Design the sequence.
């Protein structure tokens, strides 16, 4: 597989049109993506794959034109999982906790090209406090299992419950 390593800092200076796919790994705290620069490229068929904290850049950054990049949302309040209107002063017991290191079961959509027809669940690492909702405007390709989601490692019981049936891999078009 041929690939080219691009530095995030250089994305403004390169001809992104020369690439079919750009994969963005974890971003440093406070890191961002040049969404204005990537917008036209994605609309013309470019594929942007955001992994880990890079996915948060697509969720949390506000586009100047008011358009959102994704219908996936980050859950900041555990009460939102049972009551989407529950957004008042956030007590500590309702904040997502960082999973110190666990392997979770993810169920795949075997009809999506990203899973290459794989029907069984896969084991994935979870090492953050990120809880992402399933896609509304696209497809949730991988979802943390609703039954017995944790395979190994340790997580807080409240997070094991909160992560059930949430998004792990999403595909959306712009």
Sequence:
């Amino acid at each position: 597989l041929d690939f080219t390593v691009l530095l995030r800092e250089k994305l403004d200076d390169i001809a992104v049109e020369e690439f079919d796919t750009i994969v963005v790994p974890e971003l440093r705290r406070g890191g961002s993506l040049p969404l204005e620069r990537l917008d036209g490229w994605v609309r013309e068929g470019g594929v942007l794959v955001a992994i880990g904290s890079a996915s948060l850049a697509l969720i949390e950054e506000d586009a100047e034109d008011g358009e959102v990049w994704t219908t996936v949302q980050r859950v900041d309040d555990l009460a939102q999982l049972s009551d989407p209107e529950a957004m008042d002063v956030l007590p500590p017991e309702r904040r997502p906790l960082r999973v110190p290191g666990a392997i979770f079961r993810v169920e795949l959509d075997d009809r999506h090209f990203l899973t290459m027809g794989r029907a069984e669940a896969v084991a994935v690492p979870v090492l953050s406090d990120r809880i992402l909702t399933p896609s509304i405007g696209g497809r949730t390709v991988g979802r943390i299992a609703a039954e017995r989601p944790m395979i190994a490692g340790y997580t807080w019981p409240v997070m094991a419950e909160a992560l059930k049936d949430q998004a792990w891999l999403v595909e959306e078009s712009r």
Summary: The CA atoms of residues 150 and 160 lie 7 Å apart. The longest helix spans residues 35-43. The chain is about 15% helix and 20% strand. The mean pLDDT is 83.
